[in-house]
Amino acid sequence: MMETLQLLFQGFAVSLDPMNLLWAAVGVTIGTAIGVLPGIGPSLTVALLLPVTSALEPTAAFIMFGGIFYGAMYGGSTTSILLNTPGESGAIVTAIDGHAMARKGRGAQALATAAIGSFVAGTIATLAMTFVAPAMVSFALLFGPAEYFGLMVLAFVTVTAVLGTNLALGMASLMLGLTLGLVGIDNQTGAARLTFGIPELLDGIDVVIVAVGLFAIGEALYQASRYRYEKEEIYALKGSLWMSREDWRRSWKPWLRGTIIGYPIGSLPAGGSEIPTFLSYVVEKRLAKNPEEFGHGAIEAVAGPEAANNASAAGVLTPLLALGLPTSATAAIMLAAFQQYGLQPGPLLFENDPQLVWGMIASLYIGNVFLLLLNLPMAGVWVKLLLVPKPWLYGGILAFATLGAYSLNNNIVDLVLLWIIGIGGFGMRLLNVPVAPCIVGLILGPMAEQHFRRALAISQGDLSVFYNPMTHPLAVSLLALAAAFLLVPLVLRLRRA
């Protein structure tokens, strides 16, 4: 514990550097602005900024990305409450009672409980991550090639099974990513694979091109295609921006309960922000003395889910940093960001680059304070972002994404790939195919292949290295867990049928 605190203090020394403080402030400001804008979430933003930040020092870049992630969680509540349009998926539940409060002229109080609850939950959950992540790292140091292969398979299955409504479509997305990961020269044999005689493909398809294509180009085209030239009604903030004593009394317990629900569920492979926010809403309704208010403007129904939403963000970052295991679309994009710098999150990152890891964790504490200062007094300013004409917004994203992708290698092949993948991403969104499994397959596929080959080489071709519980209990446990995530929903679905 003392060693963890010492490393955290070293992280604060890194994050309090004036330039890193600036990047933290930039990250939370961009994140809040993006969270406010409907249909543009943190995953799209991080993907859009990947080409731009390639020249940044890695620690500064990840401090900014962490700020964007936390900021988007904060900002999503503004649109949910004032416009009844969630800025990102974790804010869907907030819209139910938050917008009802806004219609009653209590939008300011709804925004206040969301901001303070987000601060409380984000700080407590980041504190939990500070001590849980090193424990996960100690566990991961026991891994060999077979165990790492099992962990990669678990990542494939969980992202595929959880981030989408249809397992078959999720598997199709994963297979597309695994296929894209095969493009280039095989590291062991030196043979060219799926390059079709194009020299630029010998080094493989840049993960940034795929991330920007699927998340930025595809999402912008999808949102633009759904745009209807209708005027949206924004409820103005009225009266005092401060919560009354009664509001505080009704909010503080939901903040704590939301944190307790959000962090552990966000850390699980089946985590993310949607499950804990809905669960928090159900818990608060069950415990409320006035359940009839729920759906009509109960402040507990805003306080609890918003706390769960922000706590889950720290939960998502814990397995990503400690194990390299993404449990949400944004985590998959941040995994791509690590790949851009030639880094692999996990135990070796904590060992080889502690300045980056602990600097990023420490910056999340600082970012939470920045976010509270940004969101409480400036709610009226963020609302004005909703007045930006949507055609300008989507056109700007497409232009920015194209220029950013070209700047990576000044290569026309990258631009062609970007738009082919972007149009494919648009088609995936139309068909409700999740895009995160594709990114995870592209990044982790070559690593899974490498660990699989290495495990077989060490065991001299003996496949029991993956299923013998006596010699490799961790590998067997991880593969069994992956099988459970895949099969249990199918069995439950068949039983219901």
TrEMBL record:
Keywords: Membrane, Transmembrane, Transmembrane helix
Keyword tRNA processing in record: no
Domain of life: Bacteria
Transmembrane domains' residue ranges: 21-40, 60-83, 110-133, 139-159, 166-185, 205-222, 356-379, 391-408, 415-444, 474-492
InterPro entries recorded: DUF112_TM
Domain (DUF112) ranges: 21-439
Keyword Cell membrane assigned: no
Protein's recorded name: Putative tricarboxylic transport membrane protein
Organism this protein belongs to: Microvirga guangxiensis
